[in-house]
Amino acid sequence: MLIYLRVLKESFNFAINALKNNKLRTFLSLLGVTIGIFSIIGVLAAVDSLEREIKGSLSALDNSTIIVMRFSFGPTEVPQWKRQQFPDVSYDEYQYLKRNLPNTESIAYSIGVPNESIKHEDVTSTGVGVGAVTHEYYDIEAFELEDGRFFNESESVSGSPVIVLGHEIANNLFGNFDPLGKEVRMYGRKLTVIGVLSKQGASLFGGSRDGQVFLPANVARRVYGDNNKGVFPQLILKPEDDVDNAEYIAVLEQQLRNYRGIKPGDINNFFVNQLQGFADFIDNITGQLNFIGLIISGFSLLVGGFGIANIMFVSVKERTNLIGIQKSLGAKNKFILFQFLFEAIILAIIGGLVGLGLVWLVSIAASQFTGDFQFVLSGWNAFIGTAVSALIGLISGIVPAISASKLDPVEAIRTGM
C-alpha cells in the first residue's frame, strides 16, 4: 500500500512539474478536458436546474392529482376542429361528481380567469392573478397561510365576497398594516380579506402564489357567467391513496360520459389529464436534453483525451533515461506503469476541476441575471465531472504508460545519453 502512495505522490509531483515546466503545452493539452467537462457538467447542471424548477412549480399538487377540462396537457389524436367544439366542464358536473364519484379524497372546481386589478383605498395592484376556486382547493394544494384562513364550504357555495391575498399583493396594498378584515375592490365589488398566504417566491412559469389572490368560484361565475369562452373551468380531483389510478379514471370517464349523454363508440368530449403523466413527460424531455448535450460534449472530451495522450507520450520520451535508471535499480514494470498512469489521471483531474470551477462561476453569474431561477451545480454533478475526468485520464494514459513500462532499461539509458 505504501509503495502505491509513493507512486501517487511522485506522479503528482511529475504532473505539477509538467504544468510548471511546459506551461503552454500543458495548457493547450488540458484545454480540451477543461472545455469538455465544462460542456458536460454545464449541460447537466442547466437541465437539472430546469427540471428542479419545473417540478418545484408542480410540487404543490400531488402527482396523483387529475385535472378534467376541454384542453389536453400533451399531444392528442383528436383533431383541433373537434377539440374546439368540446364544452367546458360545469359547476353542475362538479356537484354531480362530488356526489357520485367513489374513492375520491377531494374534488374542486376552478375557473381560469384573466388577470385583474385590485384596489384598497388609493393603492392599486395591477396584473393580479386570480384563483377562482371552491373551498376544496385548499385541501388539494399545499397552501400555507401566514395569517387568517381560507374560505369555508358555506362561503364557497354562497359565493360570499371574501378573498385570500398572496404575500406580495398583501404587502403592496397594506404595507405593514394588518389586512385581515379590511376591504378591497375587484370586479367593481367590495371583498373582505380573510387570509394572507405565506411567501412562496417566484416560479419558472410566473405562477407564484405571491402575486395571486383566491376567491370563491361562484363570485367569478357571477362576473363571467357559465358560457364565457374567455375563461376555462376545470375539475381538480385527488383520488384516495390506495386507489388504482387506471380504474379510478375509467370510472370518472364513465360517470362524466353518462352525465353528458355521450353515446357508446363516440369519443370523450373532455380530457382527463394526469400530473404524473406530465411529470413523466418532463422527465423524458430532460433525459433527451441530457443525452444530446452529452453527445455534443463528448467530442470536446475526445479532443481533450488526445491532448492528454499527446502530453504523456512526450513525457515518456523526455524521461526515457530516467525510466531506464529506475528499472536498472529494480523498479518493476507495474511501478512504471502506475507512475505514468497516475500522472495522466492527475493531469486530467486538474483540467476537470478547472472546468468545474468555470461551471460554478457561470452558474453564479447566470443566477444573478435570471432572478429567482437558480442554476445549481450539485455535488452529484461535481462528482460526475471529477469521475469523468479521471476516466479520460485513465483511457488517455494507458497506452503511453504501457509503452513506458515495456522499455528495455539498457536501451532506455542508452537513448537518453
Automatic annotation (TrEMBL):
Coiled coil: none annotated. Its main location: membrane. It is a multi-pass membrane protein. Residues 26-253 form the MacB-like periplasmic core domain. InterPro entries: ABC3_permease_C, MacB_PCD, Macrolide_Exporter_MacB. Residues 295-409 form the ABC3 transporter permease C-terminal domain. One of its GO terms (cellular component) is plasma membrane. It is found in: Cell membrane. The chain crosses the membrane at residues 27-47, 291-314, 335-362, 382-404. Keywords: Cell membrane, Membrane, Transmembrane, Transmembrane helix. GO terms for molecular function: transmembrane transporter activity. Belongs to the ABC-4 integral membrane protein family. This is ABC transporter permease. It comes from Salegentibacter mishustinae.
